[in-house]
Amino acid sequence: MADELILYTNPMSRGRIARWMLEEVGAPYRAEILDYASTMKQDPYLAINPMGKVPALVHGATVITECAAICAYLADAFPDAGLAPPPGARGAYYRWLFFAAGPVEQAVTNHALKFDPTAEQGRLAGYGNYDLAMDVLEQAITANPYVAGDRFSAADVYVGAQVMWGVQFGTMPKRDAFIAYAARLAKRPAHLRASALDDAATAK
Questions:
Q1: Using CB atoms within 10 A of its CB, is residue 2 exposed (0-12), middle (13-18) or buried (19+)?
Q2: 1 falls in which pLDDT band (50, 70, 90)?
Q3: Distance (Å, rounded) from C-alpha 125 to C-alpha 127?
Q4: Residue 160, number of CB atoms within 10 A of its CB
């Protein structure tokens, strides 16, 4: 697809996930670095993402926000990168990509804020409770070489980033399975390139 790809991001944000995915795709893109206190909250960017947060991806006339959606979109937009299973074999791919974007994200955020639901509240919460979400996540990343099966996919970018940060910042338990999965994905060339670019942007 010939339309320009523009990533709106900040190197100290979830935009690092989108940058990693773009590096996995291998298509040329331009990164616009936004500041939390100014450009991220000004009208030109709010016209792209009214939430005033990053990342956002603009691809021609298409705007995509939310990291899991950006990962899924790029895998579909650039099929030659091989980052999504065939359409008829995407059950596990969609399941774990959006499990991480929904229940895991909610469980980790609430736990970090020191809110853990009671058993009664857990019936309403989409993740049940923190320990349950962590147990299911561990099962997901250990059942196969990658979260959606035998091959690395866009789901591993999103799930892997969640696990890397969770282990690094202590928002997830330092289970052997989490540490091993994070370490393996961190060695991917695309992840190393993306990290170097974001680290350089941070230094500026």
A1: exposed
A2: very low
A3: 5
A4: 24
Query: What is the token pair recorded at 194?
Result: 């993306």
Query: Which residue's structure tokens are 């006339």?
Result: 61
pLDDT number for residue 108: 97
- Strand-pair category, 62-65 with 56-59: antiparallel
Percent of the chain surpassing pLDDT 70 = 99
Q: What pTM, to 2 d.p., does this model score? A: 0.96
Buried b (16+ CB within 10 A) or exposed e, 35-55: eeeebbeeeebeebbeeebbb
Burial of 118 (0-12, 13-18, 19+ CB in 10 A): exposed
Query: DSSP string of 116-134?
Result: ---HHHHTTSTT--HHHHH
CA 182 to chain centre: 13
| Helix (H) or strand (E) run with residue 159 in it | helix 154-169
* 149: helix, strand or coil: strand
Confidence at residue 200, expressed as pLDDT on a 0 to 100 scale: 96
Q: Which residues contact 123 (CB under 8 A, 6 or more apart)?
A: none
145 CB neighbour count, 10 Å cutoff: 13
Residue 135, both tokens: 């147990």
* Other CB atoms within 10 Å distance of the CB of residue 193: 15
Can you tell me which residue has the tokens 């993402």? Answer: 49
